[in-house]
Amino acid sequence: MKKTIVAAALACLCASSMAQTEVKGKIEKVTVFPTSALVEKCIVASLQKGENKFVITGNALTVGTNDIHFSASPDWFISSMRSEQENLPAKESLAREMPQAAYNQYVALKAQMDDVTLKISNANLLVATLNQQSSALNNLKAVRNTQAFDTIVNLKAQFEYQRKESQAINTARQKALQEMEDLAARQRQLAKDIDQLVKRYTGGKNVSSSQNDIYVTVYSSKSVPNAKISYSYKTDHVYCGYSYDVMLDEAKHLAVFSLKGSVQQNTGEHWNNCPVVFSTADAGYAGFDRQLYPYYLNYIEQGVQRPVAAKMAMRNATVMEKEEVMMDASAGNSFVTLNEVSVVGVQTLSREYSLQMPQTVPSGEAVQTILLHNDTTNVLFARYATPKLEEKVHFTALLPEWEQLGLLDAGCNVYLNNKYVSMSNIVTSGSGDTMRFAVGQDPNVLVGRKMVKSSPDKSGMLSKEITETATITLTIKNTKNEAVEVNVKDQIPISNAADLKVVDVKTDGGVLDEKTGVVRWKVALQPREQKNITLSYSVKYPKEKEHKVVLR
Fold it and tell me: Is 268 exposed, middle or buried (0-12, 13-18, 19+ CB in 10 A)?
């Protein structure tokens, strides 16, 4: 009766296990967003008419039932679905990352291993039972008490019975022990085969021992061989960032912007050899159409110092003022001013970058950086120096066609003539028609500044004024083997008092902006050439205010 019940239970168990087919979802595409990813997968299965139950293994740990979306077909539909996290041995977790054919081979070897393990367990149980029977046989009370037998014949019969039973038990035990030894050898060989198979396809890497299984019931109106069932889910625990390598060629006036994407994920699922798309948009939350409000452009007077409140109002009106006057290398000796009216900031549209080669991004490993896209554009170069603030020459790239590149706001590594020079940042907001891109210091062009102030001139007993003169000498030296141009600027003071006068200004060919006091020079230097520029001015003020004026 008991055997019948056990057999029935085992039959039910087998039927239950056969009703659910274990399959592994294959990744068809991963779209990486700044803080998440959309994973698109599929399974290929033969559907029988009616209900078909599947367990889809190897999904991201962070995915819940509401995050999963299955495709539909006129012939079948998903009648029920749930997801459940399962703790797995490390080897099983590794095996689930293998291709389906290899995983099927692993499942077959694992089934053989489970069968051998069960047989070893049964053999152990049999040996234990035989040992108990042998012990019971040796301890028979009848054999110990020979007086209990009335005849010698009966006593001999009992001894013969014990001898035969003991011999049979020993024979069965030896056979069971030999079987256990053979099974243990088979178990070791299967374990070796499984290890080699897993290592061959996974490289022996360490992975999470947890997986997310999707239990799904597919109802089909007819038999469908090799039905493709697609599903997708959005998962968090993904990091994505962008940066550039900017290659500048001064001789050819070209700039190459190489966009790189950095990605790291801790979803518990490995993205193995699958198509990856980088998206600058974030698949976040839905919203309504945004309202546009009028904005106003106004002319801004050049060089006028505005209070903070006025500057904030100007910013709110989305009108941006350039504080710097930019000297374009193509403008000859004229100066191109960009601080009258500037274009409002340009918003970069979201973009997607599909990689040509499949990628592998394991879960829980270091950040991977992948080249996404190259853009080439024309570039102009200019050198700027303000020796009064720092005795350095800054090299700047001017990008007149930057809006055609679709650049992202990101940090970048800058290379000039195939040599790394600096780290910089690409800022698209408020760049206007021409983007200024900071390249770095040019160590081959040197600048210096020296100021000499005369002693206050108090000549004339009846004179009520003091005259003080400042002479500034700017030195620019080109140590390169080719000619360069340097845009240099300095300044003279502007008086805020009626009795404080700035006179006798000499700019040595520089262009003076009388509203700001800034003087600008465009200095052309031949190879190994040095030039000096002299800027001088005088200041007159009342004698009683001596020592209250500081020239610098």
Answer: buried
Q: Report which DSSP code applies to 457.
A: B
DSSP one-letter code for 552: -
**Residue owning tokens 């499984």:** 194
Of the candidates 477, 463, 462, 238, which has an alpha carbon nearest to the alpha carbon of residue 363?
238
Identify the helix (H) or strand (E) that includes residue 136: helix 100-138
Give the pLDDT score at 323. 34
| Six-digit token string for 213 | 């299984």
Residue 78, both tokens: 């998903």
Residue 334 pLDDT: 33
Tell me the two tokens of residue 540.
Answer: 């007159």
- The string of DSSP letters for 312-350 reads HHHHHTT----SSPB--GGGTTS-B---SS-PPPPPPPP
To the nearest 10°, report the CA torsion of 106, 107, 108, 114.
Answer: 110
Q: Give yes or no for a contact between 75 and 224, defined as CB atoms under 8 angstroms apart.
A: yes
pLDDT at 47: 92
pLDDT at 378: 92
Quote the DSSP letter at residue 456.
P
Q: Are 211 and 24 in contact (CB under 8 A)?
A: no
The answer to whether the CB of 544 falls within 8 A of the CB of 499 is no
458 in helix, strand or coil? coil
Structure tokens at 363: 């879960």
Phi, psi of 479 (to 5 degrees): -95, 5
Q: Ramachandran region of residue 298, left (φ > 0), alpha (ψ -120 to 50) or beta?
A: beta
Mean pLDDT of the chain: 78
The CA–CA distances, whole Å, from 290 to 234, 284, 429 equal 25, 16, 20
On the CB side of 132, how many CA atoms lie within 13 Å of its CA? Answer: 6
Centre a 10 Å sphere on the Cβ of residue 44 and count the other Cβ atoms it contains. Answer: 12
Residue 270, pLDDT score: 85
Q: Please identify which residue in the block is written with the tokens 């106003």.
A: 296
Structure-token pair, residue 423: 């780290």
Please give the angle made by the CA atoms of 329, 436 and 261, to the nearest 5 degrees. Answer: 135
Token pair for residue 58? 């190897």
Q: What's the CA gap between 162 and 466, in Å, rounded?
A: 138
Per-residue pLDDT tens digits for 334-387? 333 333 223 333 344 578 899 888 999 988 888 999 999 899 999 998 999 999
Question: Which residues in the chain show pLDDT less than 50?
Answer: 1-18, 141-142, 207-209, 299-348
Q: Is the pTM of this model over 0.70?
A: no
40 strand-pairing partners = 29, 232
Helix (H) or strand (E) holding 82: strand 76-87
In sequence order, what are the residues at sequence separation of 6 or more whose Cβ sits closer than 8 angstroms to the Cβ of residue 537? 469, 470, 492, 493, 502, 503, 504, 505, 506
Would you call 401 helix, strand, or coil by DSSP? coil
Nearest Cα residue to 547 out of 450, 466, 463, 452 = 466
